[in-house]
């Protein structure tokens, strides 16, 4: 069965770099067309797509945040990472990773999310 | 970016029909598919896929849920509404990057 799970620091200070990990099982990111995305949601607000990496290692970013984002994956295709530089209070949110079974497809499986608070 | 507009809230009675709308500022159709999807989110939980490509029921989702629409106008219908359906519903387009979501419609019971 497909599962995804996010992990992160929980809390960090403004101007630091946020590092998140998405560990998944039940599918292979090396399968043609497969994509894993990062999406975040501030408390009480809607969802914002941040970045994605596909089976071939191609990376996609939300232009509004592109300069601060770096998405990557491990060589065994079991984890996807996201780094956000120069965080501030506006980056406080629950961060989700989600599977997309093909380009332009829906998000069919989501992790439980990891809450990140940016505070001094 | 494609903007998705949803009404903020909807109140319906148990057993009645709920219709949630989502309008986009650009056409999300491409080669015969409408790249519009619907999710349900309950407090403290991750979003759950309900409908993909405008009208396809996701695996394990009861047939009380249905979706329709094309171009720039889409609807999610729940009929009949059950108590467990109280949640926030989001539409999402994947026609163009970046993927964008609506602000969500909170479904409440009368």
Structure description:
With 120 residues, chain A is mostly beta strands. Chain A contains no helices and eleven strands. Chain A is globular and about 40 Å long. The termini of chain A are far apart. The model of chain A has no long low-confidence stretch (mean pLDDT 96). Chain B is mainly beta. Chain B starts with a strand and ends with a strand. At the A-B interface, loops of A face strand 7 and strand 12 of B.
What is the topology?
The complex is a heterodimer of chains A (120) and B (110).
Chain A: E1 3-7, E2 11-12, E3 18-25, E4 35-41, E5 48-54, E6 59-61, E7 69-73, E8 79-84, E9 93-100, E10 109-110, E11 114-118
Parallel strand pairs in A: 2-11
Antiparallel strand pairs in A: 1-3, 3-8, 4-5, 4-9, 5-6, 7-8, 9-10, 9-11
Chain B: E1 4-5, E2 9-12, E3 18-24, E4 29-30, E5 33-34, E6 36-41, E7 48-52, E8 56-57, E9 65-70, E10 73-78, E11 87-93, E12 100-101, E13 105-109
Parallel strand pairs in B: 2-13
Antiparallel strand pairs in B: 1-3, 3-10, 4-5, 6-7, 6-11, 7-8, 9-10, 11-12, 11-13
Outline the low-pLDDT stretches of chain A.
none
Structural shape of chain A = globular
Order of helices and strands of chain B: EEEEEEEEEEEEE
SS strand fraction of chain A: over 45%
The largest pleated sheet of chain B is described as: 7 strands, mixed
What letter string, H or E per element, gives the SSE order of chain A? EEEEEEEEEEE
The count of β-strands of chain A is: 11
**Coarse structural class of chain A:** mainly beta
| Largest sheet geometry of chain A | 7 strands, mixed
Shape of chain B: globular
Rg over C-alpha atoms of chain A, rounded to the nearest angstrom: 14 Å
Q: Classify the beta-strand content of chain B into a percent band.
A: over 45%
Top keywords for this entry?
heterodimer; A: 120 residues; mainly beta; four-stranded antiparallel beta sheet; globular; B: 110 residues; seven-stranded mixed beta sheet; 51% strand
